Amino acid sequence: MSSPDTILDQWEQSDYKWGFVTDIESDSAPPGLSEEIVRFISAKKEEPEWMLEWRLKAFRHWQTMTEPTWANVEYPPINFQDIIYYSAPKQKKKLNSLDEVDPELLETYKKLGIPLEEQKMLAGVAVDAVFDSVSVATTFKDKLSEMGIIFCPFSEAVREHPELIRKYIGSVVPYSDNFYATLNSAVFSDGSFVYVPKGVRCPMELSTYFRINAMSTGQFERTLIVADEGAHVSYLEGCTAPMRDENQLHAAVVELVAHDDATIKYSTVQNWYPGDKNGVGGIYNFVTKRGKCAGRRSRISWTQVETGSAITWKYPSCILQGDDSVGEFYSVAMTNNYQQADTGTKMIHIGKRTRSNIVSKGISAGFSQNTYRGQVLINKGAANARNYTQCDSMLMGDKCGAHTFPYIEVKNSTAHMEHEATTSKIGEDQLFYCNQRGINPEDAVSMIVNGFCKEVFRELPMEFAVEAQKLLAISLEGSVG
Amino acid sequence: MVEMTAEKNAYAEAFEIIEAQAGPSWLLPIRKAAMARFADLGIPTTRHEEWKFTNVAPIRKLDFALAEVGGHGVTPDRIAPFVCDGATGGTFVFVNGHFDKGLSKTGQLPAGITVGSVAEAVSANAGLLEQHLARHATNEQDAFLALNTALMRDGLFVHVPKGLVVEQPIQAVFVTTSESDPTMAFSRNLIVADESSQVTVVEVHVGLGTIPFLASSVTEIVVGDNATVDHYRVTREGELPDNGFFVGTTHAQQGRDCNMRSFVATTGGAIVRNDATAWLGGEGSDFTINGLTMIEGRQLADNHLCIDHAVPHCTSWEYFKGVYDDDARGVFSGRINVHKDAQKTDAKQTNMSLLLSDRALVDSKPQLEIFADDVKCTHGATIGQLDDEALFYLRSRGMMREAARSLLVFGFCRESLQEIRFTPLKKQLEALVFERLPHGNVFLED
User: Fold this and answer.
1) CA distance A458 to chain B (A)
2) Interface predicted TM-score (ipTM) of this complex, two decimals
3) By C-alpha distance, which of A399, A380, A391, A294 is closest to A337?
4) Distance CA A143, CA A165 (A)
5) Each residue's pLDDT tens digit, A132-154
6) Chain A residues close to B366, C-beta within 8 Å
7) In terms of DSSP bridges, do strands A248-250 and A283-293 run parallel, antiparallel, or are they unpaired?
8) Do B287 and B154 lie in a common domain?
9) Which of A372-376, A412-416, B11-15, B438-442 has the lowest mean pLDDT?
10) pLDDT tens digits for range A170-182
11) What is the pLDDT of residues B189-204, one digit of tens each?
12) Shared domain check, B14 and B75
């Protein structure tokens, strides 16, 4: 191992934690990752000691890990020492209302088409906007707190509700889970925390928009949603990122916990910058999302529309632990130009009579590669478990690829499993039919693709469904011909 | 690490024996390269993606010695139950990887066809063998394939010349025995069907030993333009529980407008791994593979398929069924690779498993890799148990529970067996299924 000298050095450095040179008031940490950076982030967030310990445990574990290479994606090696692990927008003082938010930030939102004011006005939508790692505005908080619902930035929850965070953090995605989840555990910047108490049905759709704005800032969001007995919550996550030339890494962790009779619905529309036509730039989206149906009759439903990112690598999963619990996964993954997507789900059946439903639609165009990778595992105790999987792929053009890698593992004879997959292209006759009726080819393709994805869009909340359809049309631009 | 070295030594010793034997000069470099490849790869662990669900640790732990020629004590009576009677083209018996003339039976074959042992053909048909042997099954990642190439002894050689239709099925029976020490046997078969020819070949793999043995068998099939090959592989290793390890590969190299039909039946063995690969290299060709696995006890059967659609306008069809009782474990992995520009590909893959016990386990991995847009590819997998309603229907008509179950299982298997066009083999396998099922004999017709 190390020589006595280096051990001594390390000891000296770690002991000297408050002497770290970076000015605590500064906006960004220097690029690179070390124990000091982890301590810096923790200090910046005014975190208690146990949180820092947890981060450090994760960081030390991360150092022993190697990057996974099994996914069906290709990208140049990431230099983890080149990334800025913390960046906060300039904040002059504590904000009390929306008016005090920097007008420049608000302008960015406007450009992206999601004006915060309008969001606020939109009935029933509370927005916890995350702008480069720090939540700048939180709305509808009072109404929610009246019902006992906690919806706040993660860092705030660490300070205000340490007992809940301590209980649930890492309970679904342990700090040692995988390379990127461990990295996230060490350096997570912020995110959202939702707690819905017993028997409460959340009256509105909760939503968060993640943005990646500062150059070279890896975003390491951490979301934790806990639905207590009989609670019901629907959470929307939407992502847009401005044009950037440099590849940016996004390694988020999302943990969901559903107790007895609770329901969590998690919807994502992701349209981060996918890189230009030649595959230059774009976001690397390496995300760990997992939900645990801990209680009986609980239900977790993932819906995702993935149209952005240069590389998407995510598998929203369900651990079906409680008897009669239900896991669902609805996904549309659209890739164009040089985009790569390796996405799918894992359904782990543990409890009796657990059910899962998987519907995945992959569309590849241009030079893109689209992969569905999923696992359905029926454990010994999961008597009468049921799974239905359908994964359909659509290919546009002859330079792209569609792949399916399902893993089905059954350890109980009472299980019923069905898996179906098809691959096809848009029929000439369908296109001809539309053209004949005066619909131009581009619109016709968009219509057909939207029809292909309808099963998934149906699962999305209204406003998202509209956005998703538009997004798909934009992503399809130039893919016909 | 120590174990690894010991393991390599056992195989290295075997290689020294093989190396010392006189063989054609072109073969030695191939053997050497394969042995080096095996040394690199080692016996796979479950960390290897293609072996994720098939743990071959029992094979790794044992020190197998290369089986000797003769002195095996196998009599015609002992192998009679396994031999299929209708093979009028002759039955060729290989014991521990060596051709046994005494046990073999010659059949009626049309003039022009060459059938015999690979070991003899190496000198007699040197040109053809040099061109094809170990040239087609070339998966660099397959350690057992490399080991077979390095240590192969003998096997069935069939060459059907242009335009010849051979109506008589040819049978090869591979027997592995091990009475005192764990032995290993390596057989290698080569079937070459020239343009517009037709032939049927049946392979039966049988284990008779009382202690563990390792049987490895690789078959390379070259299907010429417009030719038709029917190939059957029946694996009945280890009539005694838990002692037969079988690792085999069948590779079809296909030309234009040809047909290759294959059937893989597995009814026993501690670990039976069958790889079936096909390279569709000529337009308009078809590859059909069906399979039936029926295992019990602590047996494991693993079917790995990989079909490459390299050119446009080819079709492939895979239909695999499995019945698993007791603690049996089934693994299925099917992969269809549609290469760039292989337009108008039509590929279908189905895997259906029936679990008869709570302890049985199935892992299924139907995969598609597609790089062309104008294709039709589907795959489906189902895993389940017997239908309660169907069971109730039969019970309500006065059938005993066990008999009703047996009938339903048979119905499940029969759909797959129906694909066998060589009737005597179909009858033999149907009878075998019934024998395994409680009260099965009730349904057997004479």
Assistant:
1) 25
2) 0.70
3) A399
4) 22
5) 444 444 556 677 888 888 888 88
6) 404, 406, 419, 421
7) parallel
8) yes
9) B438-442
10) 899 988 888 888 9
11) 999 999 999 999 999 9
12) yes
Residue count of chain A: 481
Looking at the domain assignment, is residue A448 inside a domain?
A: no
Say whether residue A318 is in contact with chain B using an 8 A CB cutoff.
no
B73: left (phi over 0), alpha (psi -120 to 50) or beta: left
pLDDT at A115 over 80: no
Which residue spans within B162-314 are E strands per DSSP? Answer: 170-176, 183-193, 198-207, 213-223, 228-236, 244-254, 259-268, 271-280, 286-295, 300-309
For chain A, how many structural domains are there in total? Answer: 1
User: Which residue range forms the structural domain that includes residue A158?
Assistant: 98-314
Q: What is the three-class DSSP state of A316?
A: coil
Beta carbons within 10 angstroms of residue B290's beta carbon: 22
- Evaluate the CA torsion angle A81, A85, A86, A89 in order and state its sign: positive
Q: Cα separations (Å) of A276 from A246, B31, B67, B349?
A: 11, 50, 62, 37
Measure CB to CB from residue A413 to each of B343, B379, B385 and give the nearest one. B385
Separation between Cα atoms, residue A251 and residue A195, nearest integer Å: 23
DSSP bridge pairs for A286: A313
Taking contacts as CB-CB distances below 8 angstroms, the residues of chain B near A381 are none
The answer to whether residues B214 and B95 belong to one domain is: yes
Clarify whether residues B413 and B321 are in a common domain.
no
Query: Does residue A5 lie within any of the structural domains?
Result: no
CA–CA distance, A43 with A245 (Å, rounded to integer): 31
The last residue of a domain, from among B334, B362, B385: B385
Question: How does DSSP assign B2-36, residue by residue?
Answer: HHHHHHHHHHHHHHHHHHHS---TTHHHHHHHHHH
> What is the average pLDDT value for chain B, to the nearest integer?
89
Please, how many CA atoms are within 13 Å of residue A15, restricted to the half-sphere of its CB? 6
Which residues in chain A have their CB less than 8 angstroms from residue B361's CB? 409-411
Q: Is the pLDDT of residue B323 over 70?
A: yes
Q: Is the pLDDT of residue A290 over 80?
A: yes
Is 70 exceeded by the pLDDT of residue A113? no
Integer Cα distance of B23 and B43 in angstroms: 26
Query: What's the rounded mean pLDDT across residues A156-162?
Result: 87
Residues B321 and B309 occupy one common structural domain? yes
Nearest to A417 among B360, B377, B383 (CB): B383
CB-CB under 8 Å, A397 with B373: yes
C-alpha distance from B375 to closest chain A C-alpha (Å)? 6
pLDDT averaged over chain A?
77
Same domain, B105 and B172: yes
Q: Is A69 exposed, middle or buried (0-12, 13-18, 19+ CB in 10 A)?
A: exposed
Query: How many whole angstroms separate alpha carbon B220 and alpha carbon B189?
Result: 6
Q: Is the pLDDT of residue A227 over 70?
A: yes
Residue B431 domain boundaries: 388-446
Asked whether residue A451 is domain-assigned, the answer is no
**Judgement on whether residues B401 and B364 belong to the same structural domain of the protein:** no
> Residue A480's pLDDT is what?
55
Distance CA B395, CA B406 (A): 12
Cβ–Cβ contact A413 with B under 8 A: yes
A454 pLDDT exceeds 80?
yes
| DSSP-derived 3-state class of residue B390 | helix
Across B23-27, average pLDDT: 86
Shared-domain flag, residues B8 and B54: yes
In total, how many domains does chain B have?
A: 2
- Cβ contacts of B331 on chain A, cutoff 8 Å: none
Residue at a domain's end among B367, B385, B403: B385
Amino acid letter at B396? Answer: S
| Structure-token match 């694996």, residue found | B235
DSSP designation for B165: B
Query: Of all residues in chain B, what percent are helix, strand and coil, respectively (each to 5)?
Result: 25, 40, 35
Look up tokens 């090869």; give the residue: B172
The H or E element containing residue B304 is strand B300-309
Query: What number of H helices and E strands is found in chain A?
Result: 13, 22
Chain centroid to CA A352: 29
- Per the CB < 8 A criterion, the answer to whether A216 and A248 are in contact is yes
